[in-house]
Write a structure and sequence with these properties.
single chain; 4 helices; 17 strands; about 270 residues; five-stranded antiparallel sheet; Immunoglobulin-like
């Protein structure tokens, strides 16, 4: 859910495929891929016929990827298992942030760790972890984010250690994130991946407007959806005909509350 909503906030020309529905080999040639968590067998399939980064793309994986097989048994390889060479990283230590119990009557302290991004990033300088965290060791990758732990947590091995890494692989990049996506950090993580993907945006639009492109031989369509109960504006980088109203659309368009526009793009 988080990765989908945050992708549309960036209004990029992107889509999602499920590894449960589409086998790895069927999406060879895909520019970018997001892996929430995959099993050992699927890792083996991906390291065979489907290596996105070799094709100028970006591969993004999050914590606990490649830790178990199809029978839910922990594998013997150090995570991320068969993908360690691809990501240029290994998980040195993993854990989970715990909340104090019983709750204190004092104002609650957020025990979540923070990830400090490399200076110079166009994104926010810090983003929070989920409750899960992984300390990463570099085996060819470089760190673009390190762990910051709250003083209340006391001494911890995570402080200053790699939390997000990028590995140059072939002509592309493989990004490993040592935590899970949450509503609080998904925008930052997806934004980081898109910086390496260099995918041009479809439009300029508010975060609550979803824009998706669909293609078939000879033509393409833009679906513009307003998910909020008020009028919104979007500035398109393409032009065409709204198939619902028949109006020609170019530049800025107005969307009614919960409005939908379907544009057949001009070639």
């Amino acid at each position: 859910m988080y990765q989908h909503t945050d992708y549309w906030k960036f209004t990029e020309d992107l889509d999602f495929l499920s590894f449960d529905i589409y086998p790895a080999y069927s999406i060879k040639g895909t520019d970018d891929a997001f892996i929430p968590a995959i099993t050992l067998e699927r890792c083996r399939a991906m390291t065979g016929g489907f290596i996105v980064p070799e094709q100028h793309g970006v591969l993004l994986a999050i914590a606990r990827t490649a830790t178990k097989n199809r029978d839910n048994q922990v594998i013997i390889q150090t995570p991320p298992g068969l993908l360690s060479g691809l990501f240029g990283v290994k998980v040195e230590e993993l854990g989970s942030v715990t909340y104090p119990w019983p709750p204190s009557p004092a104002p609650p302290v957020n025990p979540l760790y923070q990830i400090q991004l490399t200076p110079g990033s166009a994104l926010e300088s810090q983003t929070p972890s989920s409750r899960a965290f992984e300390i990463l060791s570099l085996h060819g990758a470089r760190a673009v984010g390190t762990w910051i732990t709250p003083p209340e947590s006391g001494p911890t091995a995570a402080t200053g250690q790699p939390a997000i890494t990028v590995n140059r692989f072939g002509k592309g990049h493989a990004i490993y994130v040592g935590t899970h996506l949450t509503a609080a950090n998904a925008s930052c993580v997806i934004g980081l991946a898109l910086q390496y993907a260099s995918i041009p945006p479809l439009a300029e639009a508010p975060a609550n407007v979803e824009i998706v492109r669909r293609r078939k031989p000879g033509t393409s369509f833009l679906f513009v959806l307003n998910h909020y109960p008020q009028k919104e504006q979007a500035r398109l980088f393409a032009s065409g005909t709204d198939l619902i109203t028949g109006n020609h659309c170019k530049g800025s368009i107005e969307l009614a509350p919960y409005g939908v526009v379907v544009i057949q793009e001009e070639r």
